[in-house]
Amino acid sequence: MKEGSRGGGGGSSGGQTLFVEAGGGLPRPSKCSTLMHSDPLIKSTSEEEFPTRHSNASAAHPGYYSDHTASTTYTQNSSADNSPFRMSPWNHQPATSSASSGGPRPGATNTTTDLCPSGTGLVGSLVREEGHIYSVAAIGGLLYTGSDSKNIRVWKNQKEYSGFKSTSGLVKAIVISTDHRIFTGHQDGKIRVWKVSPKNPRVHKRIGTLPRFKDLLKNSINPCNYVEARRRHHSSAVWIRHTDAVSCLCLSEDQRLLYSGSWDRTLKVWRVEDLRCVESVNAHDDAVNAVVIGHNGLVFTGSADGTVKVWRREELPKPAGKKGGKKQAGLTRHEPAVTLVRQDMAVTALAIDVAAGLVYGGSSDGGISWWDRGGVGGSGGCGGVLRGHKVAVLCLVAAGSLLFSGSADKTICVWRRDGGGAHVCTSVLTGHSGPVKCLAVEADPDDCGGGRWVIYSGSLDKSVKVWKVAEPAASASGNPQPPALRWDDRGTPRYDLY
């Protein structure tokens, strides 16, 4: 039996469409496909070597207010303001109005009273002037950041701890396994694997590149292992390699499989044990922007073709007559289970709340659709759409009863899920001067009572900001919730009353 599936699950022929918006499902001309990717194409203008960099970690006000002063906000131009992002498809105003958008509404009353739960707000900023931040990942008090300078930086206690560098390709995705292996997805279509040195925790060594060279060489001999490449300058390519940027990564629940989505429209499955590609799925008609893992082997992918698809994983039996069953274990086949949505807007981000059984999908128009277990299982449609951003949602992450959404409008919305499934925007975090491209979350180690989270937000303004957010208590009496809180550029908490 040949290992892997080169064309499995292509399209939605085997799935069921649950939620279709008017005018949805339209084919996308190939010449416009690059406009629907999840981030603007910005070239790095930074230098290559570490010694020429300058870094700092600026602490915020003791009250966790914004560290942006008025003079900085209104007199200085950020790198993002001078970047090609201003010409990108994300820099537009959607037709629909936001429920909790950036500016004050007519007739809104603002107050400077700090009604926010204690310890909530901006903690500090991490700045390393070397490139736009495209990816972040946090584990055990360590923060990994990837940028278009090809460098991966490691931060500890808001100070630079160490760093390592790839040979090529900006770092678009980072995921860390429980055994502390770091997987990084790059613009050049490769996935690099790193391991912390047992002798020096500050040293990271590259232990592999996916696909492995010997696997490429082995598969290149057989013409049957070649598939048609999506990019124009490739007529064909070996099926185990991505032919375009690796845009997203995630690990299975048991940490045995690594999933990679790419702008080449495929979803590839890698066996973590021996770093081999075991399956390639022609998942979408345009770039794959996000991939997340759900219950019972379900895999969710979001694409620039405007769809969110659910794939069901099946374990394949060991090939007959083969010895060494351990090495042959881990063969998979992913079949399309259901298509959650077809729309004209690109799906730019996904997140999953495993405990509540909810799936969230951010779109290029600023909306966030969500589905519960009934919708995912095929018995219902979309649970609703959250409107809190003016333009594209670029990243999502869920923690506890909260959902965090970062957007090209430079803000982060904090949503609380109530018991009945309703969502309330409890606050809007501002302070970035560029689009918020990536988010990571971990439990606050200083919070003994639980319910407070540390949020890391990476932006195209070349900075990472550190926030602490406490979960507000849900209203037991059924009274209306307080209006959304917004932190202005002067570091003052403000409530917008609608």
UniProtKB/TrEMBL annotation:
Keywords, alphabetical: Repeat, WD repeat
Biased composition (Polar residues): 68-82
Gene3D superfamilies (UniProt xref): YVTN repeat-like/Quinoprotein amine dehydrogenase
InterPro entries: JINGUBANG-like, WD40/YVTN_repeat-like_dom_sf, WD40_PAC1, WD40_repeat_dom_sf, WD40_rpt
Coiled-coil portions: none
Superkingdom of origin organism: Eukaryota
Disordered as annotated region, ranges: 1-118, 472-498
SUPFAM superfamilies, alphabetized: WD40 repeat-like (SSF50978)
Skewed-composition ranges (Low complexity): 94-109
Repeat positions for WD: 239-280, 281-311, 386-415, 429-477
Protein's UniProt name: Anaphase-promoting complex subunit 4 WD40 domain-containing protein
